[in-house]
Amino acid sequence: MSFDSRRSRCSSRIGQSALALFALACAGVATQARADGEWQHTFAPYIWGAGLDGTTGLGPVTSEVDLSFSDIVETLDGGFLAHFESSRGRWAVLADVVYMDLGQNFDQGKVEIKQTIFELGGAYEVQDDFEVLFGARLNDIDVEIDRFGGLLIPDIRVQGAQTWVDPFVGGRWNPEINDRWSFQGRADIGGFGVGSDFTWNVALTLLYEKSDKITFGFGYRVLDIDYEDGEGARRFVYDAQMPGLLLGVGFNF
Prior knowledge:
mainly beta, Lipocalin
């Protein structure tokens, strides 16, 4: 989720680097921007009412996952979501983190998933209301699948974790509606076989600027990840989509 308020130049964008791949590039952007003046920032904690629909697999065991947002709320053991941006002139850097710890029971077993998604990237405003985006999305997923065998069949438990990085490219459209309201649409694609086979992300957000310091956001986001690695006992599959509503508040400083 992003809270960009370019019309008042109170939008914000700076990221604390966790991906070495883009740390040097973002540092170069920051150095140039600081030479022109001070950065302006936004910190935006938010709620993403996402479900989880797809397939996860470890070794020979594959399980379907179908969780609505209400299911996730019931099974959520922990979570944290926040967006941070800093901008100056046409350049920007951005960071976003999503952490969820959840599980689901099914007829003959259960699946538990701990998922962390950290995004770090940059943006360049090619027009007054449009930016090109580039960056990388770190995915860290820990999966445990239990299959209950029954009277004569032994129970099966498999557990595995995988960490990978998906580069992405995209765009962000930021048209004004009036003095207080604006719209933001973002789309990006990535993976390209570097990490995931393919991933895509779309977010549509309606923004209300209550004051120079506070902006509210309401929207919808879908993130789709198609990842598979290894064979046999080392096989790891995560092919899932996360669609859901966004609700957050941005603090501008």
